[in-house]
Amino acid sequence: MKKTPGLATVPQVLATFAATFVAIILIGVVIARTGLPFDVAILATPGVTLLVALAAIRLFRLNPYRAFRLRPAKNSQLLLSVPIALSLFVVSDQLANLSRAFLPIDEQLVQTVAELVRAEGLFSWLIRLAGIGFGAALAEELLFRGVILTGLRPLGRGGALVVSALLFTVMHGLLLPNYFVAGLVLGLAAMATRSILVPISIHLFHNVAALLLFNLTDIDTLGDPLWIPGGILVPAAGILAIGVFLYLRDLGAQAAEKPAPPASDSPQETGLPSPPPGALSIAEDLREVPSGSRRLGFVFVALAMIAGLFIAVGLFVYLGYLTNPGPQRAAAIQQLRQIAHESLADEAAGRQAEIDAAFETLTELNREGRVGFRHVWRAATVVAAATTDGEFGNGDVESLLMAVGGIRQDAEERRPRREPRAPETPDPARAGQSGE
């Protein structure tokens, strides 16, 4: 197949996908063996995905303007992405329900995915918004609708769309049709709009909708028990169908376009830097886009940078913890004790000894190496939730004692304490035999 200048080849696409897949599996293995909380995976997975995409640009000498589809999007395209994202979420939820009903699915894996989405407390919310919301939308779209989809162009539009959606499904671990449909819609949006901002927007609002459903309600799905009510499903399917029709129409219009004539000798406008040779003329594209669309596009870029900052800071903190985990946990436990003391309410002033005993238990378990970061994180979540109103009351003390009791039980089950070996009593019969 002939290589398109600035874009990856099919073997390079497959190598990039394989590197990302292996890296994500290694993250899961490390978390499973070290007992780190799922928050590490939430931050590390999009971070690693983004690093692999950037590494592919560098290693294969790709043109980032073309490989990442770094073009502005129209205002109407970005606005349309919101109802498409919400309708895609509803349709995906229905497809997931049908899959669980008719296909053999590992329930433990389903529960693990659900646990990743669960948020408890403000910090947990920020991690999930940064990792699952902004981080996943940015990193996965740059990789799948950027490097991978553009690199599969030798397969034709249809082939590139289907293969990229299949790879997107495999990457998520659960081989369910809802991931494949999402990959098709996101790829179609990228092709039709020629801008990475639109699939990023769809992906972002889709994931945020999932976070809101799973955390602000007491349900895991809109289906009851299998089918989503028609008043929700039918309009959502209709909106999604309209969006797909508009994207297909735009693709048809692109195919009907004739190649543009060579540029005349007219002087080039100044004000924006020219792209590298062979790149998309992003400067000219920006000049043709209304100022409102440019501002909205810059907002998305700013949000993506904020998400990247959250991911970078989170990874830096976790890497610092991994270098010396024992003292880090001990310092965190003492900090939690100080916060509890400073926030102690008058009604719970007589229970300070119970609080100290709870933190002494955590300190002792940490000294014996029988607790991990996730245990300290659990205690920190309880303290943070208890001190949101500024006071640590009787109910908060009970929550802390229950949490520490659960941590101690978990530590006993994971690494039971060695019982002292009882001295052996002499056996007279054996002693008699040895004396013969």
Number of helices: 17
* Count of the separate structural domains: 2
Query: What percentage of amino acids are in beta strands?
Result: under 5%
Span between termini? 88 Å
Main β-sheet: number of strands, strand sense, barrel status?
none
The count of strands amounts to 0
SSE class? mainly alpha
Radius of gyration: 28 Å
Task: Estimate the helix proportion, in percent.
Answer: over 70%
Helix/strand order: HHHHHHHHHHHHHHHHH
> Based on CA inertia axes, which overall geometry fits?
elongated
Mean pLDDT: 79
| Poorly predicted tracts of residues | 263-282, 416-425, 427-436
Which properties best describe this structure?
436 residues; mainly alpha
Give a verbal description of the structure.
This protein has 436 residues and is an all-alpha fold. The chain folds into two domains: 10-253 and 278-318, no CATH class; 325-414. Helices cover 73% and strands 0% of the residues. The chain contains 17 helices and no strands. It has helices at residues 10-34, 38-59, 64-67, 75-102, 107-117, 122-151, 156-171, 177-193, 197-216, 230-256, 282-288, 291-323, 325-342, 352-367, 373-386, 394-414, 428-435. Helix 6 (122-151) crosses helix 12 (291-323). It is elongated.
Question: Topology of this structure?
Answer:
Blueprint: H1 10-34, H2 38-59, H3 64-67, H4 75-102, H5 107-117, H6 122-151, H7 156-171, H8 177-193, H9 197-216, H10 230-256, H11 282-288, H12 291-323, H13 325-342, H14 352-367, H15 373-386, H16 394-414, H17 428-435
